[in-house]
Each structure stands twice: as structure tokens, then as C-alpha cells.
Amino acid sequence: MGKITLLKFSFIVLATVIFTSSCVSKKDIIYVQDIDTALSESQSSKYDAVITNDDILKIIVTSENMESVQPFNKVVSPVVNQELSIRSQETLQSYLVDDEGFINYPLLGKVKASGYTRVELQDHLKNEMLKYVKDAVVDVRIINYKITLLGEVNRPGTYSVDDNRITLLQAIGLAGDLTVYGRRDNILVIRDMNGVQTSTRVNLTSADFIYSPFYYLNQNDTIIVEPNGAQIQASGFNRNISVYVSIASLLLTTVVVFSNLNK
Question: Which residues form the Soluble ligand binding domain (predicted)?
Fold first, then answer.
């Protein structure tokens, strides 16, 4: 075998190994591939965030007579430092849900909040206020509603959700989508359920996950995207690239030497 033939053979083998180790099948990267069938069989569903311990709530109460609801809209005064400069603006009081699931609310005292949805708590507070005001309108928001995305996404990090409602796909959109190396069929979602850590695996290539309780994310959910086989192999290759280069150089040198000896 001539020198040119050996070199060609070496490069063909190397190219084949790289190509086969980095191939990603189309079916592994397309989301919700059977969405048409799933939507035709789906039923309408509504989601409202359920309040849990350690949530921080902002509660705004309005009425035709705003003076009558002023006691419920407690304002935090600006902070003034020793130089008499204002360090913050006036803001509405926020309410931390304690370890027993209660908030301490003006006039009403301790009010159960944990376990209610936002709408349910709004109705509950409105009923409790009837002795003070007849036409109160209550709006409840969770202001520390956050989710975290890690792993094979383009912008990993923690994101605030102002609407208190977000799907898994929307969360992935916030993080700039999965990289091409992220496993779409094995997304890990970690959730705190009443102080107990739970987890599940979600397959985004199938539309079945829209029926899952993890389709809508809860506050403080963590989403972890694992690398696929190609990325794992590529990572191993990159870590050992200097070794591979040395071995390849040695092999090519050996091929050249033997080719010269056989002339």
C-alpha cells in the first residue's frame, strides 16, 4: 500500500468516526411531533398558580370609594439614610406566606393563604372584607414567582414570571431554546410539593406532555436539560484532544516511515 493510499485511508476513517459520533436524528430535535392528533383529542384546561409557603404576595384592593379600602393597601414608607437622601420609593406592603401557610393581613389578622389558588384567595379575602367594604375588588400576585433552567439551553439561569403562569415550552423560549445537543425526550423537572422534592421526566418530542401536570410550571420549578449522546462523546473528545493529536501524529509518522522503507 502506497503512502498516498495509506494517508487517504487514515483520513477517511477519521472523518467517518467524527461524522457518525456527531449525527443527530431529525426525530430527536423536533418538538411535539404529533401535535395535530393531540390537539384534536384535547380538552380545554385552565391553570392558576397555587400559593405555597414562602411565597411573597402583593395584594391590591380597589373600590369605588378608595378611602374605604385604604387600610388594606398598606404602604411602606421610603427609606431615608443619615444624609437625608431617599433610598427607595413608596411601595405597597408585600406579604410573606409563613411556614404554617398564613399571612398577617391588615384588619383581618392571620389569613390562610397556602393551598389556595390566586383566584381562590382573592375571593376569600373579598368575603372577609365584607364587614368593612361591600364592593372590594382584590388582586393577588406572587411576586417571587421564578423558574430555573440549567444544562443544554442557550441562556441558562433563573427567570422571573410576572404573569404567574408559564408553560414548559415558554420557559424554554425564555432561555433561548435548547441547544441542538440537548435531549428533548428526557427533560428533568424538579418541583417542591409541600416541602417534599419531586421530579419527573418529560418528552418534548411527543405532544402527550401537554396533559401532564408539568406542562404548566409552578413557582420555583427547576428544569434540567441533559446532553445527548453526540454531545457527551464530543465533550470526551474535546477533553482528550491533545492525546488524540499526539496519537494521530505518531501513527502518521509511522505510516510515512514504513512507506519510505518499502520503496
Answer: 146-192
What are the residue boundaries of the structural domains of the chain, listed by start? 3-24+231-261, 26-47+145-227, 56-142
Q: How many Cβ atoms from other residues are within 10 Å of residue 217's Cβ?
A: 22
CA-to-CA distance for 174 and 169, rounded, in angstroms? 9
The domain made up of 56-142 has a fold known as: wza like fold (3.30.1950)
- Lookup: cell for 216: 404548566
Q: 138-175, pLDDT tens digit by residue?
A: 999 999 999 999 999 999 999 999 989 999 999 999 99
pLDDT in tens, 191-207: 988 778 999 999 999 88
Q: What's the residue count for the chain?
A: 263
Q: Identify the CATH assignment for 26-47+145-227 out of 1.10.260.40, 3.90.1200.10, 3.10.560.10, 3.40.50.150.
A: 3.10.560.10
What's the whole-model pTM score? Answer: 0.70
Is the sign of the CA dihedral 180, 214, 156, 235 positive or negative? negative
